Amino acid sequence: MADIIQLLPDHVANQIAAGEVVQRPASVVKELLENAIDAGATSIKLLVKDAGKTLIQVIDNGKGMSPTDARLSFERHATSKIRTADDLFQLNTKGFRGEALASIAAIAHVELKTKQENEEVGTAIVIEGSEVKSQEVVVTPKGTSLAVKHLFFNIPARRNFLKSNTVELRHVIDEFHRVALAHPDISFSMFHNGSETFNLPESNYRQRIVNIFGGKTNEKLVPVEEATEVLTISGFVGKPEFAKKSRNEQFFFVNDRFIKSAYLNHAISSAFEGLLKDGAQASYYLNLTVNPQTIDINIHPTKTEIKFDDEHTLYAILRSAVKHSLGQFNIAPVLDFERDANLDTPYSYKQKDAPTVEVDRSFNPFKDDQPRAKLSNYKKETGANWESLYVGLESKGTKTNTDFSEVHFESEPEETSIFKNENEVEQKQSTYQLNNKFIISTIKSGMLVIDQHRAHQRVLYEEFLQHITIKQGVSQQLLFPLELHFSKQEIALINQLKEDLESTGFIFQSIKEETVQITGVPVNVPESEVSIILEQLISDVENEVPDSNFSATDLLAKSMAKSLAIKTGQILTNPEQEHLVNRLFACKEPSVSPTNKTTFITMTVDELDKKFM
Fold first, then answer.
1. In terms of C-beta density within 10 A (0-12 exposed, 13-18 middle, 19 or more buried), how is residue 587 classed?
2. What is the pTM assigned to this prediction?
3. H-type alpha helices, 471-573
4. CATH code of the domain made up of 212-328
5. Domain 433-602: which topology?
6. Which of 92, 114, 147, 394 is deepest in the core (most CB within 10 A)?
7. Where are the domains of the chain?
8. 584 SS3 class
9. Three-class DSSP category at 59
10. Which of these, 253, 282, 260, 267, lies nearest to 319 by C-alpha position?
11. pLDDT of 564-599, one tens digit each?
12. Please, what CATH class does the domain formed by 10-200 belong to?
């Protein structure tokens, strides 16, 4: 029998490796930025076109590469970061697998220009689909410039799986944030389609956070500092009152490397226990420094998951440090036994002279008859003129009838039965609320069980969709303009959705770099809910819920309906229950919510009978 196992060609192996390393444009951004940092760059520029689908270029002022290194860097498992297997447990650099550039070159057009500091000229290499097209000498500044064009040009299936530009740009910005936050001592800039998105100068950690997430972030930060033999923690957590529903501002860095850890995230959540509203997520920007020998980075292709030797100790230290910081800055409730007695008013007045009140003890209102004389004169005077109130009544041809025998009084008819008619009971209450979640309504064949949250979502969704389509949303004017603060990329999304938002009833007075002023909101939208609605909407657009085949109008209606719908646990009166049921069955698609979930079920009498068999 013939042998069937064979070695794969290099370009096929590189494409398979690319499936692990390069999932989307953001993966390329991460690899290139980390290579620039490992090269010792102090200034890094990121250029992106069409959310990275057309171009991703990273320019740095690092140490550059020799012509031999430049060519060798695109070979598989070629790296300058490690020499032996033991080096994997003492890593102080970012990339070390040596597959990133080889994988990227297998699925894109790559142009590399690099020059070392002491050299007069540099090297330029052009690669298309793992095939080296040219290598020549060029004049270029010190450092490296790597441009990745037409990502997945030779794998159309992978390119078709990419999301819209809005979503892919969100992922690119996320990776940019993660690298920029981990290295505040390096200046970063980012350009998308020729316009500057971020310009982050070299700064300290707090300034870097503020430069990325907006000036208003500064007042939200609470510093966290803790140093032990096992772990050193530095960074900030957000104040509970500024917590959002999204997890966009949650960052763990272990030895300057961004990681995701549900276990450590739970430590933060438990430290915030009792301080956050339902569904709100704590913000944190924490740097953890541990011994490199106590962690294993090489357990996931993207290196965002790390294995710790002693997770339980890290959990306890992290939770304690965050809780201590919240209490130290008077955010968490604390019991203070050393209370300042001077603050305990009114008890501080025990030994002080009380204010005196002067009283005329000789005053007697009944001593003199003069006031009564005045009062009698007043009575006589008013009594003498009482007839003037009725002057002119008889002149209109009407007679004043003072015969009270003809006066009739209304009285309710007496009921002959002590039991009310059954039909009357049904008319008064046709719906019932179960566990503040379901509405029970009777029908001929049995009963309806309606999910109040999903039903209200359907009602609001169709209303908003109609308002946006015909552009006749009704607004209610706010007494004072409402000013909300967002980051630059969130402002860009609001500008995109402004026209549709105005169709639902929002009125924008101004939209600036980091602030939005609103003077009008849709009817029945509370002012306190406006920021929640916009945050939810931005999150949905960034994560594209639902997918890209739906229009922005549909997405906007869905997001607003989800935010404003009656929540599970809300008590409804009988008229409110009946009104919701009537509005639901007036919808075009009453049986499903906007997210295609069932809004009600029917249970017939026969089905109920079977339950008792």
1. middle
2. 0.69
3. 488-504, 530-543, 552-564
4. 3.30.230.10
5. Ribosomal Protein S8; Chain: A, domain 1 (3.30.1370)
6. 114
7. 10-200, 212-328, 433-602
8. helix
9. strand
10. 267
11. 888 888 888 888 998 999 999 999 999 999 888 999
12. alpha beta
